[in-house]
Design a protein that fits this description.
alpha+beta, 3 domains, 8-stranded mixed β-sheet, 19% helix, Immunoglobulin-like, 35 strands, Rossmann fold
Length: 636
């Protein structure tokens, strides 16, 4: 028996190459994956979240594909092409989004189609009816009390523990967080991209809470331009906290009887105090809000009123989250607004006329001509020939009407703030194909392409391929005379330049608006909640008066622009603002009309051009588009 086993071992060693045995023992490639906001898989459903991957290669040069797949998917949602020379260690941030509450995912590295390394990941979804609070702190128990309060009525609160090295450099990857708290962390160590993303997230509606106390200098160093105060170096000991106790509705000070150590602060002109002792100061930054606590918020941990205090301070309003609103409902805005001639069917009268002509030609006309020629027996030849001619004419006319090249139509929305260069674009990119074929769509590398197409109220999965140079959708199959639509998000730098001097009270907004750019602002309107004022076209350097009474309700019903452009502007406005689209948990069809910020003025203007660059099979000249800019004005 022993001799037999030795013989088997000798045969195995002889037949199997030594290199294969070694490869089975040691994989030269390793994957270190940290998914979600906290690195442990936490994400908000229908919002983008980052997946940080570190790939190390201790073997030979290779080129591979990082692949992200949710269980049950027929194919991966995202691919990332990566070059790994010998000894390389590369960090990749893979943006991921899903409309489902997936709790598992698989990330693999494939080389030549074969898996070389794989990680099974556990995910922790934050549902649509939950509020996400990100906490950036070394104290892992900070603000645990928030899980017991409702920052929004009927919504539970989830706390996500963040790490500064995982903060993304794209504001859209932070959109799933409703509140972000920064405590005892040196924000000067954040990269320029991370600070820019944080700034963009706040301006688009995020709520930022920054803690003070002995560490205030380090905490404020990287976000000083966002704060409502200038933080001094002096500390004030034993500051009384009765004002925040009143705010929380707790008369018993308990552990706070000796007061707190607070920072010496100087309020900025637009700042306002939340409590009477100036321990909590806030101001608006774009559509968002920044709050500075002039004390270490960890000092409240043992106080019974902590949760109630933050439930009054961290009030959260609806945000204009365009992509999430449409992606969460699988809603295709292009379907009812695109005015593409190739999509129009012939009128019933024309179809009836063609049928009558067809029947007349292959029937009576054919017979009469053959009888006149005394060759009725040739009908068995002329009839199929005439049918073939009609078929060829019909097929050829379709090419004349629809052309031979694909038509790319982009409907984009850009959210921006007056005086801030650039904004966030959300675009529906639709491709009409006159014939059945596959295309390759290309976008900038920082573009976020949702992995699927919007067809009626269905979301058809579609893999997205990413690399350092581009985001692409390969093998994009479109049926004959069909239209498919994808959703793309991207930061853009070009924004109409305006300057406003607008004041307001409870009854009206009034002042002036000036076009400081070099182009005409077309079809401009000013909107406050559900009220609008039409300004018309505003030429370069021109100023117009704003006088908007808030006791009217007109928007978007009175937007009656008769549009001959690529998209029907009136239908676009109605679809966006004719109901409460941006409420928590999804659109409320019976909710209030207009923009979600009821006390802020927005300038809405149109451009007859796309804003997100798109190529089809490498050709970037096929695209036409319409862009709506929504610029939040600075009002006094």
């Amino acid at each position: 028996m022993i001799r037999f086993l030795r013989l088997l071992l000798l045969v195995f060693i002889t037949l199997v190459p030594a290199g294969a045995v070694h490869a089975a023992q040691q994989n030269p490639v390793t994957l270190d994956v940290r998914a979600g906001y906290d690195g442990n898989g936490q994400y908000h459903v229908s919002h983008w979240f980052p997946v940080n991957v570190v790939v190390a290669n201790d073997g030979g040069d290779l080129r591979g594909t990082i692949e992200w797949r949710f269980p049950g998917d027929s194919e991966p949602s995202f691919h990332y092409e990566v070059d790994l020379p010998r000894g390389a260690r590369k960090q990749v941030v893979l943006p991921v989004v899903t409309n489902t509450s997936s709790r598992l995912a698989v990330l693999r590295l494939l080389v030549d189609g074969r898996p070389l390394a794989s990680n099974n990941l556990r995910l922790n979804p934050i549902e649509a009816n939950e509020i996400a609070v990100g906490v950036l702190s070394s104290d892992l128990s900070l603000l645990n009390s928030l899980t017991s309060v409702q920052l929004v009525t009927s919504y539970t609160t989830v706390v996500s523990r963040l790490s500064s090295d995982l903060l993304p450099t794209n504001a859209a990857l932070l959109e799933g967080l409703d509140v972000l708290v920064v405590h005892d962390v040196d924000t000067s160590t954040l990269s320029v991209g991370q600070r820019s993303a944080l700034d963009g997230w706040v301006r688009l509606g995020g709520t930022l809470l920054v803690s003070g106390g002995p560490d205030a200098g380090r905490v404020a160093s990287g976000v000083a331009d966002l704060l409502p105060v200038e933080v001094g170096s002096d500390l004030r000991a034993n500051m009384p906290v009765e004002s925040i106790a009143v705010l929380a509705g707790h008369a018993d000070l308990g552990s706070l009887r000796q007061g707190v150590t607070a920072n010496q602060i100087t309020r900025r002109p637009d700042a306002r105090a939340i409590d009477k002792a100036d321990l909590l100061i806030t101001h608006d930054v774009g559509a968002g809000r920044v709050i500075f606590a002039a004390f270490d918020i960890a000092a409240l941990r043992a106080w019974p009123g902590e949760a109630d205090l933050w439930s009054h301070v961290l009030t959260i309003d609806d945000r204009m989250q365009l992509a999430t609103s449409f992606r969460g409902r699988n809603e295709n805005l292009v379907r009812d607004t695109l005015q593409l001639a190739a999509l129009n069917l012939p009128s019933p009268a024309i179809l009836l006329l063609l049928i009558v002509i067809y029947i007349a030609v292959i029937g009576p006309v054919n017979f009469l001509i053959l009888r006149r020629l005394r060759r009725v027996d040739l009908a068995w030849v002329t009839t199929p020939v005439l049918v073939a001619i009609f078929l060829l004419l019909a097929y050829g006319s379709s090419f004349i009407i629809r052309g031979t090249r694909p038509q790319i139509s982009q409907l984009a929305f850009v959210q921006g703030v007056e005086g801030v260069p650039g904004g966030q674009a959300t675009a529906f990119v639709s491709i009409f194909s006159p014939q059945r074929r596959s295309y390759t769509l290309g976008f900038a590398p920082d573009a976020l392409v949702s992995p699927g197409t919007f067809e009626n109220f269905q979301f058809s999965p579609l893999p997205v391929s990413l690399s350092d140079s581009a985001a692409t959708v390969p093998n994009f199959l479109i049926d004959v005379s069909a239209l498919r639509t994808i959703l793309v998000e991207q930061s853009v730098s070009d924004l109409p330049a305006v300057q406003s001097q607008i004041s307001h009270d409870t009854q009206q907004f009034s002042g002036t608006l000036r076009n400081t750019g070099g182009e005409t602002l077309r079809n401009a309107i000013v909107v406050v909640g559900g009220v609008m004022q039409t300004l018309g076209d505003i030429g370069p350097g021109a100023s117009v008066a704003v006088n908007l009474s808030l006791n009217l309700s007109a928007f978007p019903n009175q937007f009656d622009e008769t549009s001959n452009s690529l998209f029907n502007q009136q239908r676009v406005m109605s679809s966006l603002f004719n109901f409460d689209r941006f409420t928590f948990g999804g659109p409320n069809m019976t909710g209030q009309q207009g923009l979600p910020e009821r006390d802020a003025a927005y300038l809405l203007v149109w451009r007859d051009q796309p804003v997100i660059s798109t190529t089809v099979d490498g050709d970037g000249q096929l695209q036409r588009g319409l862009t709506l800019y929504m610029i939040r004005l600075n009002s006094l």
